[in-house]
Design goal:
binds 3-isopropylmalic acid; alpha/beta; Isopropylmalate Dehydrogenase; binds magnesium ion; 14 strands; ten-stranded mixed beta sheet; globular
């Protein structure tokens, strides 16, 4: 079997140190499960700007296009706050998503039994939670034209962003979400603001058409985004799969992350369309950011990035067994009482990023 081409982009802040732990898991998979990886590493975000003067160089983008999968840490930090908009670290992330055509962003929110008490919500509200937010990632308010800041004849300045979706864009994210729901509890909730925004009236119409023509076995419901935010904290277990616009998904997925106890637990997969050879471009990253306040202190939670690598094994390489092994190791280590600061609870043992990573590897050894 050809080696799997993995491009690693640690990025900025804690992205660097959590990726060191993922490397351990990759090495373990290579050695103990005989998976041949062809690894390379590149720069993105502020660290790329420091070297190349741009948050994503053409070379790195070309490497990402050629890779079977990209693993990304996080981007951003106060060091780059004063850069012009187009040079900011976040532009690198948005550009790689757009150029690779990664329109489907899968953000699962799963509550591990051991972490039921780490959430700010009551245990009975979140125990056993397992939902999937499907965020449209290359359109909507993040990318719509016109955009920018202009000066009006009277001297005022005007900021503009535009929410647009074509029927084709809605249908492809709709299919991705319906397909996922079909493999789960067969319930899809489409989140929109159809009482105010025409663009999402179209979104709703297209979702209904898709359900009627291709997915009658999946139950489709609709919810306004403000209500969805409320329902996520009121009774999150009513959901199975949610599908929504880019910016709505950005906001709702942070909210869903906190249901699980910490942003440090949430992985994500960003997938493109399946091409003629059956291959799809893919990028895996934790939902959390670069956390500059704790960067370099060996305090960050590496689990979201480790779980993102598990998603990579599952969605890019069809290695459900290996993905399951990683997820089981995470569960056992948490059950054993090891906690990074973000999920620390009374009576548990506070450990560093490094110790958490090493513990997952030790657990993999036992499980395999
Ligand atoms: C995310 C992040 C990014 C986004 C930022 C860093 C550009 O918040 O992945 O959710 O807004 O998409
Ligand atoms: Mg976000």
């Amino acid at each position: 079997m050809a080696a799997k081409k993995l491009l690693i982009l640690p990025g900025d802040g804690i992205g660097q140190e959590v990726m060191v732990q993922v490397r351990r898991i990759i090495d373990w998979m290579a050695k103990k499960r005989n998976i041949a990886f062809d690894l390379s590493e590149g720069l993105i975000g502020g660290s790329a700007y420091d070297v190349h003067g741009t948050p994503l160089s053409d070379e790195t983008l070309a490497d990402a296009m050629a890779a079977d999968a990209v693993l990304l840490g996080a981007v951003g930090g106060p060091k780059w706050d004063d850069l012009p908009f187009e040079s900011k670290p976040e532009r690198g992330l948005l550009k790689i998503r757009k150029e690779m055509g990664l329109f489907a962003n899968l953000r699962p929110a799963v509550v591990f039994d051991a972490l039921v008490d780490a959430s700010t919500l009551k245990p009975d509200v979140i125990a056993g939670l397992d939902i999937m937010i499907v965020r449209e990632l290359t359109g909507g308010l993040y990318f719509g034209q016109p955009r920018g800041i202009e000066t009006l004849p009277d001297g005022q300045r005007k900021g503009v962003n535009t929410l647009t979706y074509t029927t084709g864009e809605i249908q492809r994210i709709g299919r991705a979400a319906f397909d996922l729901a079909r493999k789960r509890a067969k319930r899809l909730c489409s989140v929109d603001k159809a009482n105010v925004l025409e663009c999402t009236v179209l979104w709703r119409e297209e979702m209904i058409k898709l359900q009627q023509s291709e997915y009658q076995d999946v139950e489709l419901s609709h919810m306004y985004v403000d209500n969805a935010a409320m329902q996520l904290v009121r009774n999150p277990k009513q959901f199975d799969v949610m599908v929504t616009e880019n910016m709505f998904g950005d906001i709702l997925s942070d909210c869903a992350a906190m249901l699980t106890g910490s942003l440090g637990m949430l992985p994500s997969a960003s997938l493109g369309a399946v091409d003629a050879s059956g291959r799809r471009k893919a990028l895996y990253e934790p939902v959390h950011g670069s956390a500059p306040d704790i960067a370099g202190k060996d305090m960050a939670n590496p689990l979201a990035t480790i779980l993102s690598f598990a998603m990579c094994l599952r969605y890019s390489f069809d290695m459900d067994d290996e993905a399951g092994l990683i997820e089981a190791a995470v569960k056992t280590v948490l059950k054993g009482g090891l906690r990074t600061g973000d999920i620390m609870q009374p009576g548990q043992a506070k450990v560093s990023t490094t110790v958490m990573g090493e513990s997952i590897v030790r657990e993999l050894d036992k499980l395999a």
